[in-house]
Write a structure and sequence with these properties.
alpha+beta, 6 domains, 5-stranded antiparallel sheet, 19 strands
Amino acid sequence: MPSKIFLSSITTWLILAFSLLFSGLVWYWTDQLVLQRANDRFAFQSQEIKQNIIDRMDDYQSILRGGVALFKASKSVERHEWKNYVEGLNIQKYFPGIQGLGFAQVVTPGALARHETLIRSQGVADYRGKTLDRRPLNTAIIYLEPLDWRNQRAIGYDMFSEPVRRKAMERARDTGDASLSGKVTLIQETNHDVQNGFLIYQPVYRQGVSVTSVEERRAALEGYVYSPFRIDDLMQGLLRSSLTYVDFHLYDTAKPSPATLLYAYKSKEDHFAYPATTALYDKRLNLDIDGHVWTLYVHTLPGYISAYEANLPFVLGTVSVAFSFLLFFYLRSLSHQYQQSLQLTNKIASELHNSEESAHALLEYAPDTVIVIDESGIIQTCNPAGEKLSGWQANEIIGKNVNSLIPSPHREAHDSYLARYLESGEGRIIGIGRDVELLHKDGTLIPVNLRIGVQRMSNGQCRFIGFLRDLTERVKIDKALKDRDLLFTSMINASTDGLLIADQTGKLLEANDAYCKYSGYSHEALLKMNIRDLEAIEPIESSDKVSLPMEIANGKGSDLFEATHRAQDGHLLDFEVSMTYTNQTEQPRYLSFYRDITDRKRYQDNLSTQNLKLEALVDARTAELQQQAAELRTQYAFLEKANRIMVGRELDMIALKQQVNELAVQLGEPARYNLSFLDKTDI
């Protein structure tokens, strides 16, 4: 063991050394990669600048060749025709930097006066040939469009009189191709915003003559189609995008110098030094354009490589070094933990052994049946509970196909179930409990709940573990509950009274046949209704009158009241309702029995009507008797007076008083005269 620890220590130190070496290589490779990418980017940008210039100059040559073609296609090109041609090109929009497109005509020394007269007759009243000399070849600018104030300054100018322009014009005349001049100051320039310029010439020869040799071309020369350019305007339209941390200079020669500087992109001319001493990258490119050489010098500015790129090698190197030390300390800790890991492994092995023994004990004493089968359906394990449930001993059942415990028709299909799962991984009851039947050894069927789990072995095979719980007692209980439910249903449907069961919100949960018959609603329709839907009371009173009996029943436990429901066909039903509140179920319920009292209510209504009629008759008879009593009192007063007058009629008076007393008794009043002294037989 000590030798292993020593070897591990050496290994960790070697790994640290190699990791640090690798970190240094990471820093170096990353630094070189950053520099290479920057160099490639700079090379691409330099080539892009060069190509943009070449492409733009090719476009300008096409314009000049178009002007030459116009002269070849016409006997003569008039001033307005030339103007229309240039306006059609729209050079300000599509060819920025070009100052104009013109034509310079060859003028022989003896034809100067005739030439000026001709041009003035064409509408240029103040035309005058400028700088025309007695040279064998002179030229005069007669067309230049657009004819703005700058270009008007050049009309009549003899470009052949200036050496730089003449050199380019002679090269164009002798070669027949476009020719680019050297660096010049255009006639169009003023004292303000002066820019370097150059010109491109394309010769125009007389039609119908041979121009195969230099002498023939010189003899046939009629003039030049040309374009003047201001270099700053040209470059602004040429650069498609801004160049960040890149500067370039364009020289009118193959040998750059401050005197030949044609254009500076960013650096001022007086601050420029060639080559740039602080540039990380620089490149010198020669451009041969129309027989003239330009030199393009491109160089980087400080900051060309971003801070992110510049710091990337250091960051990656630092991270790599940090990772090296982390790996070193990690491996060192592993070497110190070796013994602890070994002890822990032994402890885990011991615990695993104990766990296996515990699992065996759980399997042995588990109250539920546990059966394990392989991929072929062969039983591998059966615990004692399984022996008791199936009637098979473990040594009898182990090795048999599990089909021996499965009744038909599932027995015949079980092998296909296993094959389908092993092929597709699709198991309909894997991990899902399901009630099935187990075939006992004696042939009886035992209801069980089956749950199947899958154990994937290290060799890639599967074992299926089935857990079976005997449901015999539960089935008996379920049957008893179903029988009780059937009895309860039969009882409530046999009742002549209606029955409604509702929850706390009044939603109907059950209704018997009697109530369905009363209301005319089907059982399904009632279960979609609320008890409020059946009440036949005014809407303004509905919420109180419906909830009040439920509230009373909720408080007292029960209540007896009368209610009126509306049947499906609209007629009213009078019920005597016995409502009971119960909370013995999971959710509180209201049980209401409805006894039809429609006939009784009708009888009571008829009785009330008869009573009202009888009371009316009594009132009428009473009024009649009261009227008769009043009349008798009048008669009595008269008789009293007569009695005082008529002596001897005592008996008649007594009889009259007796009638008064009888009428009083009929009216419910006490007798008015005391006639107790009379013997009634005498009357």
